Amino acid sequence: MKQLVLFIAFLIFTGCLSKSKNNIVKIDPKAIALNNSAVKLMMWPQKDKLDSALVLLNKAIKIEPEYVIGYSNKIGVYIRQGNLNMALETARQLEKIQPENPQGIIGLGLLLERTGSIKEAQEKYQKALLIYEDELNHTDKNDKKYMFIQTNYAADLIFLGREEDAKKELYEILKKDSSYYPAKMLFTTSKKKLLAEMTKANPVHHNLTYTVVQPKFPGGGKAFITFLQSHIHYPPAAKKKHIQGPVILSFVVEKDGSLTNVRSLRNPGIGLAEEAIRVLSLSPKWSPGIQNNHPVRTTYTIPVIFSLGDNEN
Asked: Which of 49, 99, 128, 270 lies deepest, with the highest CB count within 10 Å?
């Protein structure tokens, strides 16, 4: 289900990047190195690896007391460990650092709701809603940023139980761009599903610079959809049992545009993830991400939606 984050708001804390008037805060390289070492440990399922990652993240935060990515990864560790109370405490610390970041506030609301503080969670969702509304009012509708804000706004409406209002916002987004994945996924989800995603927290690797240009499939998003549609074969066993839904894939776009480390973050089952991975492995090289006019390795996440229509195709 992020962007996420958002991907939408599922790993919502990944959107809480350190900002200043220039949108970039210089972080001590030692803290970044500790964070990135912790991320490598977080990739492993063993409990002792997570404990070691937590030690490194605490050291990073000691060096940089307002290191947002460090706090975000701490929350991820606690969620993976099932320690929602500590995740909640860390999320409260993060809110003090970025009190006007709506993504972080929604993430805090999710944890409050998961730990039984429903009333306070609703207050956080409402606070985030007001921030999003203010951002929408001060953003040009033709600006690409507007659609991103509007998608997060729709996610917040779902958390507030206003799913019909959320669908109106998402419908408006999809009228502009019918291939916009985050909006398509939110359109078919529910608050229950979003809350369930809180058990799946992926770490945030901190690059020393920010990606200025995102990786891109040759020909853009529509060409990528055409590529998927022309290569995917619905697994017969999944079709027979009417299994459908999004497969979430994570992969790395290398400096030369090749794709590596393809893996499934979410799998509806019965061969769907395997088929999505098979097809993605056939992809031609992408245009790589660019930082400071240089190609860089970039982690990318996409949903591949398997859906059976009336004709079962």
From this structure: 128
Domain range spanning residue 254? 221-306
The answer to whether the CB of 231 falls within 8 A of the CB of 282 is: yes
Q: Are residues 156 and 76 in the same domain?
A: yes
State how far the Cα of 173 lies from the Cα of 186, in Å rounded to an integer.
11
Instruction: Specify the pTM.
Output: 0.56
- Is residue 212 in a domain? no
Residue 38 lies in a domain: yes
Please state, in angstroms and rounded to a whole number, the distance separating the CA atoms of residues 101 and 124. Answer: 11
* Closest among 226, 231, 238 to 312, alpha carbons compared: 238
Name the domain count of the chain.
Answer: 2
Same domain membership, residue 42 and residue 118: yes
**Model confidence pLDDT, tens digit, residues 115-149:** 889 899 889 988 988 988 898 898 888 887 888 88
Backbone angles phi, psi at 260, to 5 degrees: -135, 170
Task: For 84-127, write each residue's pLDDT tens digit.
Answer: 899 999 999 989 988 888 878 888 888 898 888 989 988 998 89
Tokens 């059976």 map to which residue?
Answer: 308
Instruction: Report helix, strand or coil for 301.
Output: strand
